[in-house]
Design brief:
Helix content is about 65%, strand content about 15%. It has helices at about 1-35, 40-80, 95-110, 130-150, 175-180, and strands spanning about 85, 115-120, 155-165, 180-190. A four-stranded mixed sheet has the order 1-4-2-3.
Length: about 190
């Protein structure tokens, strides 16, 4: 019985390391088999992964750039439509601050060659309706003529007077009247 125990012990001591080495070797071969890739293949796959990541990064950057361009264009259009050339009481000559506004409008129109606009002349509520319609017409044409001197074709612009009919601010005070004396631009075609 002791002899069987000794034989079992010796077999275990001799076989166990061989078995362990076989298992380790099999495990290594199994990992290689699972990977099944040479170093060159691994390097190629890694390069492809990096190229995909770089392409995705570039795509996202381009999408962000396009989105920023859209935001800027929307802001420029909003400014074009909502920034007005203002006039002094009972006047239609272009003031210095209105000149800056009109130069910006000319720049926008030059960047958008197909843009057609209507220039609307407006007045405050003081004066007769007929007088204010005539003054609004002179204001709209004054703005149009100024833009023509900046190279904008007159065929791209029409004028109309609303006199006192469409105030921006309906209050009856100097601050409201100053807002209402304006040339306002509306896009009528692109």
């Amino acid at each position: 019985m002791k002899r069987h125990g000794l034989i079992f012990f010796l077999v275990t001591i001799l076989v166990l390391p061989v078995f362990a080495m076989t298992l380790t070797s099999c495990a290594t071969q199994e990992v290689k088999k699972e990977m099944g890739l040479t170093d060159e293949e691994k390097a190629r796959l890694e390069a492809e992964r990096k190229a995909r990541e770089e392409a995705e990064r570039r795509r996202q950057t381009e999408a962000q750039r396009l989105e920023e361009m859209k935001r800027r264009e929307a802001a420029a259009r909003d400014t074009f439509l909502n920034e007005h050339a203002h006039f002094d009481f009972d006047k239609y000559n272009i003031r210095a601050d209105a000149e800056v506004v009109l130069r910006d409008k000319a720049e926008y129109m030059n960047a958008h060659n197909n843009l057609l606009v209507e220039i609307q002349g407006h007045c405050d509520e003081r004066g007769t309706e007929a007088y204010n319609l005539a003054l609004g017409d002179r204001r709209a044409n004054s703005a149009k003529n100024f833009l023509e001197t900046l190279g904008i074709s007159g065929s791209r612009m029409t004028t109309v007077s609303y006199g006192e009919e469409r105030p921006l601010d309906p209050r009856a005070n100097e601050a409201a009247w100053a807002k209402n004396r304006r040339a306002q631009f509306v896009i009528i075609g692109e």
